[in-house]
Amino acid sequence: MGRAPCCEKMGLKKGPWTPEEDQILIDYINLYGHGNWRALPKQAGLLRCGKSCRLRWTNYLRPDIKRGNFTREEEDTIINLHETLGNRWSAIAARLPGRTDNEIKNVWHTHLKKRLKPNHGSNDNNRQAKAKAKVMTTAHTPGSPPESSSEVSTVTTSENNGNMCATKIETHEDHVSEIDENFWSEVLSADNSSMAGDFQVVGSDPQLHHQYFPSSPLPKLEAVNEYGPNIYDSDTNMDFWYNLFARVGDLSELPEI
DNA sequence: AAGTCGACCAACCGCCTTCGA
DNA sequence: TTCGAAGGCGGTTGGTCGACT
């Protein structure tokens, strides 16, 4: 048996709040606080359900709410936090003073998600469009023999936080890994470097790599863009792998960076 | 000028968690 | 320990507005 919606009672108003209702709610909370949301509307004389009052207060009327457009820094923070926290909007909001989970959720769906998608025409998207959804794990450690076919390791995921399609990473004899295109655009947007072009994996962070590809050689990230090859420093490389495994594996199992 | 479409965002819905009796 | 009430959270909806045809 499901619980009846809280606003199902006859006579309770729904829809946009009027300035008068806002003022009543503000005045009441300023005077008495909001100890009991269910009881609040009746005591304040509002024809609203408690849930609606709570939402209106936390998302709009709270005095510490910062209105206006998100700054680039805030957007980057959201993107970075979303990388690690997923769609836990309230957790992300807790790291952004003055911003609500609802607001962040809206910004994500209307702005930031697009920024991470390829083929949208912006500089970012042009950049992302250049990136091929392909990684080549070319690198055995110099002098080491190629891995045998029995040492193929595979990581698969059909969905991670509902954001991506099937992802499959395999290290085969031909050292080619096919990865979903959205994944790469997300990885590209997640870091602030000017990555573009094809990616080549030519070495690796031992700790991360061994955890997920225990039997294959250690790759390192190299981006090939219009300015030529660019091998990343160890931090960037680690960030890359962190982002990668955050999508294909269980984040909680990742080691601390 | 009117109609259509898409972006934006406030608000709702339903599920899950927490807490107290 | 159980159960119901209340709060919290994330997904979704629907109204509004501006751009475009």
Automatic annotation (TrEMBL):
It comes from the Eukaryota. Residues 9-61, 62-116 form the HTH myb-type domain. CDD domains: SANT. SUPFAM superfamilies: Homeodomain-like. Residues 114-161 are annotated as: Disordered. The keyword Nucleus applies. Residues 146-159 have a biased composition (Low complexity). The keyword DNA-binding applies. Signal peptide: none annotated. Residues 9-61, 62-112 form the Myb-like domain. GO terms for molecular function: DNA binding. Keywords: DNA-binding, Nucleus, Repeat, Transcription, Transcription regulation. It is found in: Nucleus. GO terms for cellular component: nucleus. Its main location: nucleus. InterPro entries: Homeodomain-like_sf (IPR009057), Myb_dom (IPR017930), Myb_TF_plants (IPR015495), SANT/Myb (IPR001005). This is Myb domain protein 14, ARABIDOPSIS THALIANA MYB DOMAIN PROTEIN 14.
